Amino acid sequence: MTYIAKPKFHHPGLPKNELGYTHRDYEGKISTLCAGCGHDSITGSIIEACFKLSIEPHRVAKISGIGCSSKTPDYFLGNSHGFNTVHGRMPSVLTGANLANRELIYLGVSGDGDSASIGFGQFAHAIRRGVNMTYIVENNGVYGLTKGQFSATADRGSKSKRGVTNSDNAIDMVAIALQLGATYVARSFSGDKTQLVPIIEGAIRHQGAAFIDVISPCVAFNNHTGSTKSFDYVREHNEAVNRLDVISGRAPITIEQAPGTVQIVEQHDGTKLALRKIDADYDVHDRLAAMAFLQKHAAKGQVVTGLLYVDPEADDLHANLNTVETPLNTLEAKDLCPGSAALEKINASLR
Amino acid sequence: MPVTSPISSVNDFVVRFANVNGSGSASANEMFARSIIRHGVPVSPRNIFPSNIQGLPTWYEVRVTEEGHLGARGGVDMMVAMNPQTWDKDVASIEPGGYLFYDSTKPMPASKFREDITVIGVPLTGITNSTYTDPRQRQLFKNIIYLGALSALLDMDPKVIEQLIGEQYKTKEKLLSSNVHALHLGRDWALQNLKCPIGLRVQKADKVGDRIFVEGNSAAALGAVYGGATVCAWYPITPSSSLADAFTSHCKKLRHDPETKQAKYAIIQGEDEIASIGIVVGAGWNGARAFTATSGPGISLMTEFIGLTYFAEIPAVIMNVQRAGPSTGMPTRTQQCDVISCAYASHGDTKHPLLFPEDPHEAFEMAAQCFDLAERLQSTVFLMLDLDIGMNHRLCRPFKWDESKQYDRGKVMTAAMLDEGRDFGRYLDVDGDGIPFRTYPGTHPTKGSYFTRGTSRDRYARYSEEGAVYQDNMQRLMRKFETAKDLVPRPLQANAQKPTKYGVIYYGSTSPAMDEAIGMLEARGHNLDRLRIRAFPFHSSVASFIADHDFVYVVEQNRDAQLRSLIVNENGIDPVRLVPILHYDGTPITARFIAKSIGDHQDQLKVTPLRKVVS
Questions:
Q1: I want to staple A222 with a disulfide (CB 3.0 to 4.6 A). Which of A218, B248, B362, B568 is the partner?
Q2: How far apart are CA A111 and CA A123, in angstroms?
Q3: End-to-end CA distance of chain A, in Å?
Q4: Dihedrals φ, ψ of B482, to 5°?
């Protein structure tokens, strides 16, 4: 959806990561979303997270559904394969892609219309199966591309731009993801990159179903007074439970914070998540408490953000299916075809 | 009323078992069919069952046919009436001179029988209850007891059945001996109390050869294993569930690494058909061979994704085990009613290849071939099975695999090719066959990546809403479909013994009934050339076959003459030249039906010329 070619030259002094790549190597085409759209900030955060993690861009598969959010994979990681699938069906396509090649990083990008309405079932089942992925919902509470209808995450009582009050109850995707067994669950705000970038980093490094709900205000249709997904509302009601730093490799951990308020979580692949606690009592490993915490604060109109739950020992769909380590898409006839001698035996058993 | 003499026939009759669903009769009935095959006599069995697990009526029909006619025949020579619910209808369906076998433990009024049939009463419940006390045993062994009685009545060799029981309970000695005991209880009672054998008899022959006896769904699933499928996603639906089940069990035996025990496949039971095809699409996009198995309602749900596979050019295989529609229709009855809905599935201008296997042998072969075609054509390819082939055991040629055969993975550009500087345009036709190159995700750090979308784009996968760019792409897709005509299985032609102006086109499970009907029609003086269509898009020989004949009958198992419509539409044939012969009551088409329909039509054509009348 891009008509303007993006210039490729860049400042020679741009910082490089371990692989020698700059930020620019993680960018995609120029965004065609509205100026100031929260989704573009999330795109920026994804680029930042991948740069910081020194990921080979082509080893990521970006998969999305349909909608404003689902257009964004074109705007980051231009050297990755992307797949803009069918409305609400990103999770199944991602699941199939993941089964075919377990070695790539799977980034699922979706929106609240795509995942909480038409794709609610697929969202739920991909989470249930523990697909190793980073599932990001860019949540603005409205259907942007079709000009501002309420989505299923719009809070009851919130007002549309035209002044209509939403009478339906909202779906809290984070609460659902927790209930369905996602092993890395976070919520963040597109306007808070310092919180969001490390959350995405941690999710990419997580070896299981990671779900991130990012409140991402729609500047065109849902950024007015009376909306609970506006920049102002989310800033005023943001209840962050922690701040995250992701430390990979052998880098020493140096965090300036009062003693006792930093928790180190080591994930399966050795990356460490340093959680600077804001709420001292919040236990990031307690799924039930997380669910209760969310409900309690939602009732008060607060938006809980941060890394809400992580199971560092998570497993994934491949572990459950006991599939071979070699990606299935590289297996050849000699690996897969039992041959004519085996077929003769089968024939004999059918006589 | 003239007295009807009892039917007398050796190795050529139909036995139908009327049972209650869930009573354990299926395995005894299947053993009956298998034991006749072991006599060297071909059989063609069919399940007629309700959409139910327990309690409703179910039938199992065994056509004993030394001639090897494997289509349904129609009519019943012997009814094994084990279900009081359907008694009246079952008794009424017996051919005059036929036989009724029933449980005579409780006396029945004479009005419940017919005078023109032979009634054979065996006190099955009585024998069972005096031998067994456990209710489940009573139920199961009653089935074996009637099998024993039938073996005496039909003059079968008990050793053959004993051997089958031995094979079935190889590792379960206790079950083996108790089954053999039950068999002889029934057999001995019949020998002592009835005139054995009756007019229907099984005589040892040598007409089975090296053929195998297998269900089409299991065969197709095995074809998927041989064809290199690694991802299967499916949602339970009759009559296709047993295909996914069979794939699972074949994979458990054939696809685990001998050392690590790890699986070289992944099977997902999806939350619905949409997710199932979505998983297949994701896997296909990422370079794995993937398929789903479903039936008509599942196809309806999958159509949006099928359009995506057409436009974004993603390999996918859908095995459609057709059942009677529309809507829920008759989920346990057979039809060929999804031809149009699969050929043109999805919104917009779309077309997809279809393969029509005639029996389990071809189901195996074509299932494997589907994966080559899907990757070569970068498209959804349908394997069009139906309940008649899928869920019934069918005697067929043994499975064959050519060891020298390599999988055709289609046009895939590798990292090495990209490094050589090959021009990669995802939708660029490089050699005129309409098929572009693709790359697998993760191939190369800087080259060959592209964005896959269901929206319009140019030859280099760049988004575009330009009319000319869109048309260019749609034209290329048409060229690709032309290419497919020479890649899919060709039609098979068989000419009549005498030159004829008339032809017949048929496909899929109609095959055995058609073969038999040809003989019946010849006996009536009607000669027809035959063309069995094995795939869509149609090879050029379909049009030339029609051109070579004045009229061509198109025999199908649906109401709307769907294949005929497809032929008319795709080849621009005058519809008048294609005469539809349609069977769509949910039962498998029979030779009797085909021969009568075509024969009556042919008779009408035999108008005596006016000049002859005058002279």
A1: A218
A2: 11
A3: 60
A4: -60, -45
Tokens for B588? 């498998």
Bridge-based pairing state of the strands B231-234 and B354-355: unpaired
Identify which of B539, B530, B543 has the alpha carbon closest to the alpha carbon of residue B571: B543
Interface test with B, best of A59, A346, A349 (most B CBs within 10 A): A346
Contact in structure between A212 and A319 (CB atoms under 8 Å): no
> CA torsion A324→A329→A330→A334, rounded to 10°?
80
User: Model confidence over B552-610: pLDDT tens digits?
Assistant: 999 999 999 999 999 999 999 999 999 999 999 999 999 999 999 999 999 988 766 66
Identify the residue among B254, B305, B453, B460 best suited for mutation to test binding to A, counting A beta carbons within 10 A and taking the highest.
B453
Q: Distance between CA atoms of A42 and B604, rounded to whole angstroms?
A: 75
Q: Under an 8 A CB cutoff, do B254 and A331 touch?
A: no
What residues contact B174, with CB distance under 8 A and at least 6 apart? none
**Start-end of H helices in B494-548:** 511-523, 540-547
3-class DSSP state of B45: strand
3-class DSSP state for residue B96? strand
Give the Cα separation of A350 and B24 in Å (integer): 22
d(C-alpha B213, C-alpha B392), whole Å: 10
Please state, in angstroms and rounded to a whole number, the distance separating the CA atoms of residues B94 and B113: 11
Confidence of residue A1 (pLDDT cuts 50, 70, 90): very low
Token pair listed for A139: 């949540």
CB atoms within 10 A of CB B133: 8
Q: What is the pLDDT of residue B136?
A: 87
> Would you call B569 helix, strand, or coil by DSSP?
helix
Hey, what's the torsion of the CAs at A231, A237, A238, A241, to 10 degrees?
-170
Residues of B in contact with A114 (CB under 8 A): none
Q: Are A278 and A238 in contact (CB under 8 A)?
A: no
Distances (CA, A) of B129 to A139, B29, B82: 69, 21, 16
Q: Averaged over B535-549, what is the pLDDT?
A: 97
Q: Which two tokens stand for residue B104?
A: 């005579």
Question: A59 and B403 in contact by Cβ < 8 A?
Answer: no
Contact A222, A34 (CB under 8 A): no
Domains delineated in chain A? 23-339 (3.40.50.970)
CB B385 within 8 A of CB B219: no
Alpha helices (H) in B337-393, listed in sequence order: 339-343, 360-377, 387-390
What's the token pair of residue B36?
Answer: 């006749």
Domains and CATH numbers, chain B: 9-201 (3.40.920.10), 214-396 (3.40.50.970), 411-487 (no CATH), 492-605 (3.40.50.920)
Q: Does A115 touch chain B (CB under 8 A)?
A: no
B281 to A63: CB separation less than 8 angstroms, yes or no:
no
pLDDT in tens, A270-281: 888 988 888 888
**Choice between B74 and B351, residue whose per-residue pLDDT is larger:** B351
Cβ B463–A63 below 8 Å, yes or no? Answer: no
Say what the ipTM of the complex is. Answer: 0.96
Exposure of B448 in the CB half-sphere (CA atoms within 13 A): 23
H, E, C per residue of B355-367: ECCCCHHHHHHHH
Whether the per-residue pLDDT at B114 is higher than 70: the answer is yes
Residue A27 DSSP one-character state: B
Q: Count other C-beta atoms under 10 Å from residue A315's C-beta.
A: 14
3-state secondary structure of B174: helix
Q: What is the pLDDT of residue A247?
A: 84
